Amino acid sequence: MEKPFIAGKRLVNAAFKQRFAIGAFNTVNLEVNQAIIETAKEENAPCWVQTSEKTISYAKIPNLVSMTRIIANENKIPVVLHLDHGHSVTQAKVCIDAGYSSVMIDTSLEEYETNLKLTRQVVTYARSRGVSVEAELGVLSRQSDMYTDPDQAVEFVEKTGIDYLAVAVGTKHGAFKLKGREKIDLKRLKTIHEKVPVPLVLHGASSVNPKTVKTANKYGAALTGLKGIPEETIRKAIKLGIAKINIDTDLRLAFTTGLRQFLAENPNEFGTREALLFAKEKVKEELRHKIKLFGMKNKAHNP
Ligand code: G3H
Ligand code: 13P
Ligand code: ZN
């Protein structure tokens, strides 16, 4: 029988204890999936692949599960396969049944009591199947009054039994065109960490490398004013209990910039594999950088 994926909490708890963070990388296709797993192998780092619901609609669960398992086996490393922002109990259960080893139930837009109830349902289902659970309290993409409340977080973690908690402390998904992005509320993060016993998760953590933006613009894009999270803030957040960091935007930017560059430099090339391979290498470069930043290098350990 094929080896199942490794439970998410094994990696996150180990990172939490040793004060580094697991880079949780969003995949969308074969090339990004290979890039994530191959780079983890090459850097001797723990490996975490995650899929959003949109990616599930795009690529379908059986493809994502098989592809991740096959690439993990080829590289002989344990991998976590995680559902990112599952918005329903049904979606979480479908992924658990399909072999995912970690799921995020994100019902954070619901009333607090509903969020609590739905999260608990997922924990009950997941626990007996050896699957880890992440949930979110507060809302990432709204205004400051939706930041995670530390005392409510204590109760939420206790009553749901989740393994790790996604916090809203000012980060946002994507590369936002904000005039002076809001400051990340590290004081609040510190308070949450002091009160809540489980590892914390930082979403919307891409940094948006200005060099990559410059390259994208050199090869035809017209990207202006994009902001991400400064790397110094990421380092501080890791010291304040963040043990899982979600990255999607930076991988998208690396991939599509690679495609732009390849096609601009090779205008007569119409080979699909050539362009995709070049883009994949750009994603791997970005992943190596994140692995170093998050302190994951040489932190792989066998289940
Ligand atoms: O949480 C947001 C992730 O970046 C997923 O984005 O829903 O477009 O795949 P997506
Ligand atoms: P970024 O858009 O900043 O990469 O965040 C990704 C994320 O939080 C996925 O859940
Ligand atoms: Zn997210």
In short:
The protein has 303 residues and is of the alpha/beta class.
Task: Describe the protein in words.
By secondary structure, this protein is of the alpha/beta class. It has one domain (8-293): TIM Barrel (Alpha-Beta Barrel), CATH 3.20.20.70. It has helices at residues 8-18, 30-43, 53-59, 61-75, 89-98, 112-127, 150-160, 186-195, 210-218, 231-239, 249-265, 272-293, and strands at 22-26, 48-51, 80-86, 102-105, 132-137, 164-167, 200-202, 242-247. The protein has an 8-stranded parallel barrel, surrounded by 9 helices. Helix 2 packs parallel to helix 4 and helix 2 (30-43) packs across helix 12 (272-293). The longest helix has 22 residues, at 272-293. The protein starts with 7 loop residues before the first helix and ends in a 10-residue tail after the last helix. The mean pLDDT is 94. It binds glyceraldehyde-3-phosphate, 1,3-dihydroxyacetonephosphate (13P) and zinc ion. 1,3-dihydroxyacetonephosphate (13P) binds at residues 26, 84-85, 173-174, 203-206, 246-250.
Gyration radius, to the nearest Å? 19 Å
CATH topology: TIM Barrel
Helix/strand order, N-terminal first: HEHEHHEHEHEHEHEHHEHH
Write down how many β-strands occur, each being a DSSP E stretch of 2 or more residues.
Answer: 8
CATH superfamily membership: Aldolase class I
Helical fraction: 40-55%
